[in-house]
Amino acid sequence: MAFPWLKSGFPASTIAPHATCCWQCRGRISVGCSLLWLVLCLIAGGSTPAFCQNSSWMVHQDGARAGLASSPASAAASRISSKLPLIDPGIRVQDSDAARWNKVILLAKPRLASGEMEMIPNTIKDMVGTFMLTMMATIEPYRAVATEEVSYRLKEVGVGFSVDLNGQPTIIDSDTQKELGANLGFIQRRMLQSSEEQLSKPRLVAKTSTLVVFDVPAIMWQGEEHRDFLMRHFIWVDARTGKCATLVWLLSEADDGSLQLVPEPMRWVPAGTREDRKIHVDSSQFVFGVIPPESAFALEDLPPGPQVPWVEPAAELAARQSYDLDSIRELTMALNQSLQSLRSQSGER
Fold first, then answer.
1. Which helix (H) or strand (E) holds 214?
2. How do 132-143 and 103-115 pair as beta strands?
3. What is the pLDDT of residues 332-346, one digit of tens each?
4. Cα angle vertex 205, ends 159, 140, to 5°?
5. DSSP states of 153-171 as a string?
6. Cα 301 from chain centroid?
7. pLDDT value at position 153?
8. How do beta strands 103-115 and 273-281 pair?
9. 186-196 and 28-39 are packed helices; what angle lies between their axes, rounded to 10 degrees?
10. Which sign does the torsion angle of CA 92, 124, 301, 52 carry?
11. Which of 56, 157, 240, 260 has the greatest number of beta carbons closer than 10 A?
């Protein structure tokens, strides 16, 4: 698969920053809910993609195609929600020609993979992979008035939970699961209800007609301990082809509330990725008779995929609290330099 072009040339819509009974019953439900919340900690992730064999993955920046709109009217910000929309129940998780939710971004299935897993009841272990975090996009074709060429825009990115129904991942929620044929048990329903509350956690940072930037709280296993981070996601569509992809990186919060880039390469994740989301268990945070905290469970790593090295402009811009029209353009140009470095390392010409 070719990398889609990352473009900075469309009017931006930016938003302001700073967008339980006994252990055997409530405890098991809480552990399951904590694990399912970890599914949300890394919205974009996945298995290692085959590396591309041509240059179309580069950020496109020649003048006419990548130039930002210059008029005040076209560059005016519009008010958008600070939350990601929820995918409608009943939607099948597949690419399609539907008017809405027609592109799969990510399907992430959690799994207890390391640490003191013997501390978790077997019933919860078996249930952890029941619900898959699902991210889909609405990619909308349109015909440019001036050229009559078909172009594509990223209208929205949404999240939800899916389960396998007759071999097809299908979006459900706690209100419609029985009607759709999921027929969840009591604990599964409670786990789903609690996890649905966490779907409001992602904070939309910026949006243009071809990209979306948002943050999600993440608990990561780093340096033999579980630590809090923000996971920033940069999802874009190639306006010429409709192909899309995601860049993901970690941010930490300083004492003064500012964000700092974690000095690790970002990852490139193709659309349609199915992720084996590995979770580490830290039993040192377990106390007998007390429900374990969310911090007892952590994602093992960023999603596997090509590591994209940072270049100086991108590293500085990547940790901003918010973006206006000019700074989102600067960020896309800086990410272009980072992707160009990746291309050089791969030996492409």
1. strand 211-222
2. antiparallel
3. 999 988 888 677 766
4. 55
5. EEEEEEEEEEEEETTEEEE
6. 14
7. 95
8. parallel
9. 40
10. negative
11. 157
